[in-house]
């Protein structure tokens, strides 16, 4: 039997992935399916850290656009990721998979605070670690949190699970003629301003030579294929 290509991964799940076709919030059926796929990969012995977004509930930039103070709006966005993290962790519990939520913002009655050594310990024990509240700082995104936590836990790759099945020459949701890259270097992705991931996240991953694989969370089996080192989505490399 073939073995996974990675021992430890950082999976970035966009908040919108949890919403499915709903206009807002958390769709239980979609969460069930995603959790089932992650549990399967965990069962292969892969250590999994997850950074969860919050865009299905609140985005700081939208709050700021309607007149809210940007930093305040971003803290609301970070709290939205905590809600998603708790929903995800509970779905893992229903699958009898152990997980822990570690939050970059301290809300200790609700979830554990993020402590790097503790995160690594949980991973070594085979628990899935869900990193909540992004980086804990306004003006950042959960993509950057994924790059940061990926680096901190020594992940071999960041897997960005999103609505599109890779990095395209332009936003495929706006330009139907856009073509998908099979592989692309960080320099090219940054130079061409490809907005699939924010520039801060790309730059951090480039500097520390942490590759990213962008793939569709809506394609059943895609996560497992990426983890097995099969050709899936787009690899962004140094
Ligand atoms: N060059 C590109 N290649 C692929 N996707 C892109 C590109 N430019 C913009 N996008 C958009 O980036 C989104 C992926 O980022 P994600 O963080 O999951 O979404 P959001 O930023 O809306 O939360 C895709 O849904 C896609 O529409
Ligand atoms: O380090 C961080 C991570 C997130 N956010 C806020 O949390 C919101 C939700 O995160 P994001 O938009 O990255 O979620 P996703 O697009 O993955 O659903 C963002 O809009 C920001 O307002 C933040 O301020 N700092």
Could you name the CATH topology?
Carbamate kinase
Query: Structurally, how many domains make up the residues?
Result: 1
Query: CATH homologous superfamily name?
Result: Acetylglutamate kinase-like
Fraction in beta strands? 15-25%
Task: Calculate the mean pLDDT score and round it.
Answer: 96
Mind telling me which CATH architecture this is? 3-Layer(aba) Sandwich
Strand order of the largest sheet: 4-3-5-2-1-6-8-9-7
Please state the structural category.
alpha/beta
Round the Cα radius of gyration to an integer and report it.
17 Å
Main β sheet profile: 9 strands, mixed
What hetero molecules are in the model?
A: adenosine-5'-diphosphate, uridine-5'-diphosphate
Amino-to-carboxy terminus distance? 30 Å
Total count of strands: 9
Description:
This protein is of the alpha/beta class. The chain has one domain (8-237): Carbamate kinase, CATH 3.40.1160.10. The chain is built from eight helices and nine strands. The protein has helices spanning 28-43, 60-65, 70-94, 116-124, 142-153, 186-191, 199-207, 222-227; strands at residues 8-13, 47-52, 99-103, 112-113, 128-132, 157-162, 183-185, 212-216, 234-237. A nine-stranded mixed sheet has the order 4-3-5-2-1-6-8-9-7, sandwiched between helices. Strand 1, helix 1 and strand 2 form a beta-alpha-beta unit. Helix 1 crosses helix 3 (70-94) and helix 5 packs parallel to helix 7. The longest helix has 25 residues, at 70-94. The structure holds adenosine-5'-diphosphate and uridine-5'-diphosphate.
């Amino acid at each position: 039997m073939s073995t996974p290509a990675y021992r430890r991964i950082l999976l970035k799940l966009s908040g919108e992935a949890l919403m499915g076709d709903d206009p807002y919030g958390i769709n239980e059926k979609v969460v069930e399916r995603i959790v089932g796929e992650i549990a399967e990969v965990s069962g292969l012995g892969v250590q999994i850290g997850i950074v969860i977004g919050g865009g299905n509930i609140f985005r700081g930039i939208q709050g700021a656009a309607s007149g809210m103070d940007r930093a305040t709006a971003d803290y609301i966005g970070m709290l939205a990721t905590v809600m998603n993290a708790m929903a995800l962790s509970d779905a893992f519990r229903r699958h009898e998979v152990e997980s822990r939520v570690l939050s970059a913002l301290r809300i200790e009655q609700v979830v554990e605070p993020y402590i790097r050594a503790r995160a690594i310990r949980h991973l070594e024990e085979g628990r899935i670690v869900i990193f909540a509240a992004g980086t804990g700082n306004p003006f950042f995104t959960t993509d950057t949190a994924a790059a940061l936590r990926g680096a901190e836990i020594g992940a071999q790759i960041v897997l960005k699970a999103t609505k599109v099945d890779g990095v395209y020459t332009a936003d495929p949701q706006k330009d139907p003629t856009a073509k998908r890259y099979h592989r692309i270097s960080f320099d090219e992705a940054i130079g061409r301003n490809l907005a699939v991931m924010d520039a801060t996240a790309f730059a951090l991953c480039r500097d520390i030579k942490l590759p990213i694989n962008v793939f569709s969370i809506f394609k059943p089996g895609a996560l497992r294929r990426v983890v097995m080192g099969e050709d899936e989505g787009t690899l962004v490399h140094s």
